[in-house]
Automatic annotation (TrEMBL):
It comes from Actinoplanes derwentensis. It holds the Pfam family AP_endonuc_2. The keyword Phosphoprotein does not apply. Keywords: Isomerase. Residues 16-250 form the Xylose isomerase-like TIM barrel domain. This is Sugar phosphate isomerase/epimerase. One of its GO terms (molecular function) is isomerase activity. The keyword Plastid does not apply.
Amino acid sequence: MTIGLSTYAFFWQWHSTAPDPISLDTMLERTAALGVELFQICDYPLIEEADLASVKRTADGLGIALELGTRGLSPEHLQRYLDIAQRLDVTVVRSMFNTVGHRPSLDEAIDLLGAAIPDYERAGVTVALETYEQVPTPTVVAAVEAVGSANLGICLDPANSVAALEHPRDTIERTRNHVKNIHVKDFSFTRRNGWVGFTLAGCPLGEGLLDYDHMIDAVRPADGVNQIIEHWVPWQGDPETTSQLENRWTDHNLDYLRSRK
C-alpha cells in the first residue's frame, strides 16, 4: 500500500481561513520534501480552474502521483472530474453521495452511478465512495454492489461514520471487500468544558480509537489500495499555532505508517 498525503493534511494552511493560503504547488513541494510520492487533491475547488498542465508538470517533476477527491454523483459532475483525472494521469477519484442541498436516495445513487461509471471503466479510472456520517455505510455498500463494476468501490474512513453511531470495526467489516482507497486519521472523544457532552476530534495516529492494525489486516488483500493521510486538527486559537500542529501530526503519522509497512 502506498502512503500519500492529502489536501486535508494541510487544511488550515490552504483554506480560506488562512491569512496567507499556501498553493497546491507548495503542498506538492512539501509532500516531496517528506519523501512522499502520492498526493490526493481532495475537496479542493481550485483544481477545477487550475492550469492542469502546470499541475501535472510540477507533480511529475517532483516524482508525485496524483489522486482526486470531490463530492457528488451526477454524471455531469463525475464526467468533469474524469476529464481532470485523465489530464493528470489520476486513476482514483474519491467521491461522496452528497452535493450541496441534495442527498440522493439509494435508487437515485444507483441510477446516477450506473450512468457515470461506464466512462470511468473505459478510461481505467476508479470511483471510490467515502464512508461518512450522512449516509449509512450499508447504503453506500449497497450502491456499489448494485452497480457491480470493478471501477467502483469504497473510500474507507471509519472515523467519519462514528458520528452516525456506527462502530469503526463495523464500518471496516461492511466495506472490506470493496475498499479502493483509505483515508487514515485517528480520533478520540474528550469531555467538553464542564463535562457537559463530548467532542469528537482528531488526534495523532496510535493515540486514539482507530484500530489501525485491524483495518489494514482487513483490506490488505486488495491490490492497489493506497493510504491517504488526513487530519482533524482542532483549531488552536491562531493560524500559526494550528499550522505548526498540523505539520507535527503529518510527521508523526508518516512515521507511524512507515513503521508498520
